[in-house]
Amino acid sequence: MLLCRLKQQALLLHRSPTAALITRQLFHEIPATTSALPPPVVQPLTPIRARLRSGVGVDLAAATWALKSSRELKTGSQLHAIAVSSGLFSFLAVSNSLMCFYSKSGHFESALVVFASIPNPDVVSWNTILCGFDSCVDALRFAQRMRHAGVLLDPVTLTIVISFSGDLQDISVVHQLHSLALKSGFDSDVFVSNALITAYGRHECIESARKVFDEMLMRDLVSWNAMISGLTQEGSCADEAIEVFVRMVGDEGLRPDHISFSSAIAACVQNSDLQLGSQIHGFAAKVGLKTHILVSNVLMSLYYKCRCEDSATIVFHEMRNRNVVSWTTMISIDLSNAVLLFNSMRIDDIQPNDVTFVTLIYALSPQHSIKEGEMIHGICFKTRFSTEVNVSNSLINLYAKLGSMEDARKIFDDMEIKEIISWNSLISGYAQNGLCEEAILSFSSAAIHSKPNQYTFASVISAITSAQTVYLSYGHRLHCCIIKLGLNTDEYVAGALVDLYAKRGSIVESQLVFDEPFRKSLISWSAIISAHAKHGNYEIVMKLFEEMVNSSILPDHITILAVLTACCSCGMITMGRQIFDSMIGEYKLDPWPEHYACIVDLLGKAGKLADAEEFLMKIPNGPGVSALQSLLGACRIHGDLELGKRVAEALMEKEPMESGAYVLMSNMYANNGDWENAARVRRWMRDKGVKKEVAFSWVDAGIGDSLFMHKFASDDNTHPLAEQIYGVAESLGSEMMVLEEDELMAA
DNA sequence: GTAGGGTTAG
C-alpha cells in the first residue's frame, strides 16, 4: 500500500504533462486527483535510509534538515520517497520542506505536484508555492486564488506579492499593496517595508521608496541596501545613493556587505567617479570583500567606464571565481580579444548566455570578415541562442556592420517575433550602409506592423542624415510627427535631430533643437560642437566643450576632432596643441590619423611648416594620407615648393590613383609660373589614368509626397529622360545667349 | 530543523 503511494508520487514528479495538469487544476480550481499513476524508480539512499532500515526511524527534524541541505534532485526525490514510506509526509513541516526543496532546485512543477497532494495546506504551503513562480502575472493570479480559497493573508504573503509587483509594468499594484499593508498593520514588518522600498525603486518611484525608508522605526542592512540600490537604479540619484551608503557606514556603524558595496560602486559607475569608486574598492578590500564575485564584477564596470582597462583586467585576474557576468564584462572590456576570451570562458566551463552572445557579436568590427561573422552566428545557432530575440537583433546589427544587408534582411525575415528593436536594427543597418531609400521604406513598414519608438525615429533620421541626397523636407515631416508624439525631448531623437540639422539643414535649426530641455548625450554634444566647428565659430565651440566637460560627459574622438577643427580654422595653435595633449593625457584617447592631420594642418596653415613637418615625423606608424594632404595644402598656400614636392611624392606613393596630390602639385608649379612642370604633372596624371572624382548633383522635383530625387553626374546620360533634359538644357542655354546679346545691345 | 526583503554584464 505504501509502495503504491510512493510509486504514484514519484511518477507525478517526473512527468511534466501530469505536472502541467496539476498547474491547470490549481488555476482553475478543479479538485486535484492523484489516481491512476504508473510505476516509480526508487534509488537506495543515504544515512537516513540506513536509519530507517536499522529501525531507529526518521524523525521530522532529520527529514526537513536533510531536505534543506540538499540541492540534488536525486537526493530530494529519495527523501521524498522516504517521507512518504515513513508516513512523515503527512506532517506539513515535511511536505512544505519538500515543496521548498523542489522549488529552489529548479523543479517547480514537482513542488506543484506535492502541493496538490496535500489535503489541508497551511499558509506556509501556499506561500512556498507562491514564491516559486517565475512570472509575476502567474504569481499574482495564484495570490488571487489564495484569497478565494480563504487563506488568511500574512506578512510573508504580502512580502512575496509586493516583490512580484515590482516586475509589473503598472505601478498601481504596488500602491494598492502598500495601502493594504497599512490597513493590515503589516507595514511595521521589516520584510514588508524592504519589499516596498525595492518595488518602488524598480518603478523608479524614488520618492515613495524614500518615504517608506524614512518612516521605518527599525532598519536592517537589507533596508539600507534596498534604498541604495533603488537610488542607483533611478539614474539621476547616484549622489544620493552614495550619501545613503556613507550614512549607513558612518552614522549607523553598519558593516556593508557585498550587496551594499556593489550598489554603491554601481552609483560611482553612473557618475564615472573613479576617485570615489577606487576608495570604495579599498574599503571593500579592508573588509575582505574585494574579490567577491558581485563586487569584482561591478568594479570591472567601474574601471572600464572610467577607461582604466588595465585596472579592470587586474580585478578580473584577481577573482577566485568567475561567473558568466564576469566573463561577459571582460569580453566587453577587451573587444579585440573577444573570441579568445570566449574560448577561455568555455574552457573554464562557464556557459555563455544571450548577453554573452550579444557582447561577442558586438565585438566583431567592420574589419572582420563575413566568414568570422558566420562562425559566431554558427555557435549561436548550435547553442540555440540564435532564436533569442536580442541575439537575432544583434546578428542583424552584425551583418549590417559587415556590409551585408542581404544576410541582415534574412535574419530579420526569419524572426518569428519581431520587436520594434528588430525593426530599428534593420533601419539603422540600412542607414549605415547608405541605403536611405530602404531605410525609409522599412520605417513605413515598421509604422504599420509595430509601434515606432524613439530609436526608430532616431534611426530613420540618421539614415537621412547620412544619405547622399538631402531629404530635408522629409526630415521636417518626421520632426513634426516627433513633436506630435511628444518625442522631441527624448535624448536620442533630439540628438539625431541636432545631428541632422547640423549636417544637412541649418545650424540655426540644430541649435534650436539643442536648446530644448533634453538629456544631452555625447552624440548630441558632439553634433552641435561639430556643427559650430564647421562654421568656424571658435568661441561657441570652446564654450560648448567646456559646458560638456563640466556636465561630466567625457569627450570621444569625434568631439576632440571637432574642437581641433575649430582651433585649426581660427589658427589657435596653443589651444589646439593643449587639446591634443589633453586628449592623450586626460581623456586617455589614442589619436586617430585625423587628429594628427588636424595639428599638421593647424601648424601648416599658420606658416609653421618646419614645425608641421617635425610633428608629422613623430606620428606613430608614419603619417596618414590626410596629414600629408594637409601639409601639402599648407605648402601650396605658403609657396614652399621644395617641401611640397617631397610631400606630394610621399602622397603619390601612398595613393597613386588619387588625383588630389597631382592637382595640388600642378597648381603649385602654376602659381610659381613654372608652366612647364605644371603641364608635366598633368600629363603624368593622364598617362597613369588618374581621374578626378566625378561631381554629382541632384534635383528634388518636390511634387507632392514624392521622395524621388533626380541625380546627375557630368557627362551622364543614364537618366531615362536624358534626351529631353539635355534638350531643355540646350534651349535654356540658347535663351541665355539671346538675353546676353540683348543686354549688350541695351548697353 | 517548513515560506518572505537587497546584487553585477549588452
From TrEMBL:
InterPro entries the record matches: E_motif (IPR046848), PPR_At4g14850-like_plant (IPR046960), PPR_rpt (IPR002885), TPR-like_helical_dom_sf (IPR011990)
A GO molecular function held by the record: hydrolase activity
EC numbers on record: 3.6.4.12
Top-level taxon of the source organism: Eukaryota
PPR repeats: 189-219, 220-256, 388-422, 521-555, 658-692
Coiled-coil zones: none
Keywords, alphabetical: Hydrolase, Repeat
GO-annotated biological processes: RNA modification
NCBIfam families in UniProt: PPR
Protein name: Pentatricopeptide repeat-containing protein
Gene: PCMP-E40
